[in-house]
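To close the chapter, one final illustration. This time we ask the reader to focus less on the individual chains and more on the assembly as a whole: which components sit near each other, and how the overall shape emerges from the parts.
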Amino acid sequence: MLKTYRFWIVSVLISIMLYLSVWMVSQYDVIMFSLNDPDRAPLFIQMMLQIFQRRTIQVVALIIASVLIALSTTVFQTLTQNRIITPSLLGFDSIFVVTQTTLVYFVSMSSFVVNPVLNFLLTVTLMVGITLLMYQMILKQHKNNILLLLLIGMVISTLATNYASFLQILMNPTEFQTIMSLTSVSVVNIQTSLTLLVLPITIIIAIYFFSKTYVYDVMALGPTHALNLGINYAKQTHIDLIFISVAIAVTTALVGPLSFLGLIAVNISKELYDKYHHKTIFILSIFIAIVVLLIGQTIVELIGFRTVVTTFISLFGGIYMIYLIIKEHKI
Amino acid sequence: MIKNRRFLSIVSLIILIILSLSIDARRDVNIFTLFNLSPEALEILLISRIPRTLTIILTASAISVAGLIMQSVAKNKFVSPGVIGTTQAATLGVLVAHLFMPGMALWVQFIFSFITALGGSLLFVTFLSKIQFKNEIYVPLIGMMFGALIGSFSIVIAQTTNTLQFLNSIGVGSFTNKTIGTYEMIYFVVPALLIAIFYASEFNIVSLGKDFANNLGVNYSKVITLGIIIVSVITASTFIVVGPLPFLGLIIPNLVSIYYGDHLKKSIFDLMIFGSIFVLICDIIARSVLYLVTGYNFEVAVGFVMGIIGSVIFLYLLLRKTKDA
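The assembled structure is written out below.
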């Protein structure tokens, strides 16, 4: 039953409904009071519609993030021939913080900082640029060693975090406040103007990945077999890495870091569907990512925002990963 | 050749110690006025600067040795207590101690963080022995994930108890305010260091693998457990006094093994000297950079400086290592 699309489509719809309506639970008293008051009721219904509208945009943004993360993680795992790796480990979130900090420190209060769309475009371009530079420098010299790339990405992200904290110490408090508001992107703090901007990018990336599913099926056999079967492995890897870095950069700038979401979604879908057709894994993992993200956010709202959904997901994702590694006994 | 290097490093260590003793916000107490032996200068020297320099040297030597032991135990050059989650576990311990017994003495925090650090590293080492690795880069990758898991566990606890600020404040290493009364915990590393020096050859043999070690008459599991206990003591006590120092345990053993080879019994003192030099340089930069840039008498936490310099050195090591392989 868990394998059928119908089950997962229903779950996605249920979780969207849950997310749209969960705020009513905590505000139950207010809602009942206002609806029973004949003077307030019409105004209040209008207000509720506004809340629903805002939440719908949030749902769209969360679905965009889930789609991008699920697709890019699946492809990245195929490229690395490994099930415990995610492209978020390349350190996009710290590059994001560094870009914002540098912008505010050197050109504070310019339109790049104040205008969210310009800021978003510049940040994404820089993030993609830096990762592409890393690919060029490392993959060309070290024969497509993506593992080395990951380790270097992690080190660079430590370097970047320290550099950013250093700049933040030198700042005056106003600039520091700007940084804090710019870098606190999270699932509950989505810029609505960005969602519409990101939608076409997501569709293009999704169409590309879905059009190449058969190529990935072959690439999953390993570089040697793929080369033998007529795939330009190195070139395909480079193109895929570019798309992956655009996808992760966009999600990081839109909803913040969600590193373990991709791991959970892709691994659960690979557990459920024990063949290796990328088309099915793509679709299943997108559905699972949406369900995990929306249900997680619903739970966080139900327990009164005691924690954030990112920490929630990384805690359970980490435990799940360690369980997987122990179960398989090897990496 | 090696003797020359050793001489040079000892000389530079002494110069750096003198520098470290004579730089501070009080610019009237410097290397020249110290020799006048005025009572005030002596007091500042005894209360603040000697404890600080002593803390730096002990911390640096201890963390470098801990990194080396961890690398022998995990049989991998890319790990250190900071990479595989021992430090994160120590953070968790301090957080738990803060939550359940606020305002208790430092040694209570030490015991808590020692227990969690021990648990975390034992868990990771048993975990390592259970799985086969196709590529040695997986070991630090898994370790970083393990550390991130423990870290997010601490964050969840801190978020639900409103102690996130406390968690952030203990998250950066710093040698500020290490005066008499706050630095004594660091003496816990001295016995750990002595045991490490005494068992240096055993650690060397253990890094060759289980069967080989048993063949050579070394009790493998006993030495591994001893190593993890030493690492946990060092991590816990340096964490309580100073805080996490990124990359120190990772790069210093690697640099020393490039220049002095892997014979631990011979190179363990070079390791300590080298580590102390590195941390002294970082600390002097951290103390003076804000004064040089902005003119204010503030100091940056040494963790930031070390994070920047250390990650550059580590990148160099990584790229160099794969070029040879």
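DSSP finds 16 helices and no strands in chain A. The two ends of chain A are 30 Å apart (CA to CA). With these observations in hand, you are ready for the problems at the end of the chapter.
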